[in-house]
Amino acid sequence: MNLASSPPPSSLSPLASDLPTLGRLIRSCRLHCELSLLDAAEIVDIDVAELSRIEDGKSAATEALFKVLAGFGQEMLIMQRDDASDALAAVGHTVNWYEVMERRYPSRERPVPAALVLDCTTPTLFVDFDGTLHVGHAYIGEDDEITLDTGRPLLEFAPLLAELLEPYPDVEIVLTTSWVRRLPVERVIEYLPPELRRRVVGTTRDIKPRFSYVLDGTERTYVVSSYVYGKRLRHWLAIDDAVFGAAQFGREPGELVDHILLLDSSRGIGDSNALQRIALWLTEVHSAPHG
Fold this sequence. Notes:
- The protein is of the alpha/beta class.
- It has 2 domains: 77 residues, lambda repressor-like DNA-binding domains (434 Repressor (Amino-terminal Domain), Orthogonal Bundle), CATH 1.10.260; 164 residues, Rossmann fold, CATH 3.40.50.
- Helix content is 38%, strand content 9%.
- The protein is built from 12 helices and 7 strands.
- A 5-stranded parallel sheet has the order 5-4-1-6-7, with helices on one face. It has a two-stranded antiparallel ribbon with strand order 2-3.
- Helix 2 packs across helix 3 and helix 7 runs parallel beside helix 12.
- The longest helix has 16 residues.
């Protein structure tokens, strides 16, 4: 039996990012139907204790959960985070995925790198493509042709980066874009303007994050920090829309935070504040002692 003839008039986001949030959403649906816990459990044909556990954000049988969702006229969708962001925006909600991940894994322990001296002073910029050098996410077709889901030009902000770096010929670039996992590195580099191509010294393609980092959204930060410590880099900056959880990595708490520029994917480095931050980093690096 479907209890909900219309969506509950609630300001709650429909994103069930964890069990407590899922429980609150289900309780909201039940209250919208003006049902007691006992009556709702009887109608959807589950034990009242089981429904109570679900509403309290505790683990429960999957079958019971689906009975409850079906009974309240709700459906569960499984999709990529980017698509989920679009779906939420369509119904008037936004989501900060970093905050979601922080709530989901508040006390995760991170490995501490072994003691080492960061004695490589070459200024290094870690550069993503999607949400960084252009607005949108790439679709790589069967013929390996690349288009963006926004219809915007590929790497439209690359000339801005080239202009910023022009006075600093010693700055090197490491690509963090996921494109290198699908296409040959040489081809990915060819998408960049010549002024940036010559600066590329490597990619993070061969650094494999733990699955737990993939799940909590911090894999890009892990990959970048692994490259940094492996190459003993002292002066570096990562510009990316997916470098989440920087405070959780490093030899000391917060060590990486000042090296991370987490971008708004809808603006990339086209955002004036982002350009100012990169310019400031360039100035600081080139005024710092290199011994």
